[in-house]
Amino acid sequence: xxxxxxxxxxxxxxxxxxxxxxxxxxxxxxxxxxxxxxxxxxxxxxxxxxxxxxxxxxxxxxxxxxxxxxxxxxxxxxxxxxxxxxxxxxxxxxxxxxxxxxxxxxxxxxxxxxxxxxxxxxxxxxxxxxxxxxxxxxxxxxxxxxxxxxxxxxxxxxxxxxxxxxxxxxxxxxxxxxxxxxxxxxxxxxxxxxxxxxxxxxxxxxxxxxxxxxxxxxxxxxxxxxxxxxxxxxxxxxxxxxxxxxxxxxxxxxxxxxxxxxxxxxxxxxxxxxxxxxxxxxxxxxxxxxxxxxxxxxxxxxxxxxxxxxxxxxxxxxxxxxxxxxxxxxxxxxxxxxxxxxxxxxxxxxxxxxxxxxxxxxxxxxxxxxxxxxxx
Length: 376
Hints:
Blueprint: H1 6-22, E1 35-41, H2 47-57, E2 60-66, H3 69-77, E3 86-89, H4 91-99, E4 128-129, E5 132-133, E6 136-142, E7 144-148, E8 171-174, H5 179-190, H6 204-217, E9 221-225, H7 228-237, E10 242-245, H8 247-255, E11 260-263, E12 270-278, H9 285-295, H10 298-308, E13 311-312, H11 317-324, H12 328-331, H13 338-343, E14 345-346, H14 364-375
């Protein structure tokens, strides 16, 4: 996949907006077509809510899991985008799918749960462009630091632990260009002279500093993980003892009695906010809308949140979470204020236009090249 320059973004945006306004959005949801092809993060289509959906809708769910947003974008574009109906895109993939015309506008009047979304996720910039909705915000959460408490007995409080030679050969981090943002966030605190104010808006000198840090980290890494299950296996076998993770891995490992703990370090964290989007060429659009409505119900939102270790977008899921697991609503910040939400640096697609009005930031294509340099 290629990153989009500012000019290309503007050009595509104009064309897409014109098409979206003229689009004949569905005004009702018909009978399911019998099948639903889902591209999703691992753990996002669990039998606990897939089976009831299949029984209620008559739509048989066919799942394909991915380990990175790059893989997600590539998979949804295969065969001209005709091989999937819905995708659970994160912020660093959603805009690429929108500007690539891979996903279609969604009629929010057909999604009753939309009225109950937290305000920050009703029209976020990563899935809503000039007032046109290209998906429904689903779940969100931080990227966390995870470690084995038997081998690392003093709980780390800084991301510095994953750059520390003392842990050579037992570190693992995601195999994903967006991981650059994690290093950039760390450097924004440890080297303020670099002037990094947004970990997704990096100039060439700032990127050079980030790449230098990641190249120093490279010999320390046991393995870059692609799927969440890869990291789970690394910690189960003892090959990894500390690394960057999602709450899902930590929950899975603790359920398997692997002694791990996780935290958001003092430097803060990046994070994701995922969106269910419908393919431009969806062969089963009714099943797609039925699926989105199903997974946006408070019960499924709560099930998903507790299974993965994340936070639901539907505010009514909070009570459901506490019914299933007392205290979990507060634990996962489902009742958090807007201030908490604003402390997480959520994934977004890097573009040349910087937030300060300059056009000297590096786009996603440059991030991909930089990540390959790190891994050489």
